[in-house]
Design brief:
The chain is α/β, with parallel strands linked by helices. 38% of the residues lie in helices and 22% in strands.
Length: 166
Amino acid sequence: MAFFVGTASFGQPAKNAPPSTEVRPLDGRGLQDLVTHRNGRALVMNVWAAWCLPCVEEFPSLVRLDSLYRNREVDVVTLSIDFEDEVDGKVRPFLKRMRATMPSYVNAYPTPSDLIDAILKDWSGAIPATFFYDKHGSLVAHAVGQRSYEQLRELTEQALRSSARR
């Protein structure tokens, strides 16, 4: 399977936030732990790549979303599908430029199909893609293609509302 790119619009990186340059590999066990061990917090996971223009343009909205929800029962994380050997040359510099402070991962699955199947079997692999889980680790919604900050925020609120109903 291949990854495909969605539509585009522009945004700005967050100001006054210290950059995070730690990027950890994420494999099957790591993804399972990330999704299931929620500690009472919802999860927003964005899948992106440094070579994907819509992903790059959407990223400031994710930084803003992380800033808003960091202290409000939501974890925002990013998962790059760039190759692991590109982390130092592409992924970390991009995260630093965006002043990203959320946890960041790089795909460590053997194949793109393995990652796709682990996240959502019906997902085409198109990016950017954002997955919204409630505090119990249940997938509540997903969005494929670039989304505005307002759209991402509404889907995050949906995950929080779903958590409250359970």
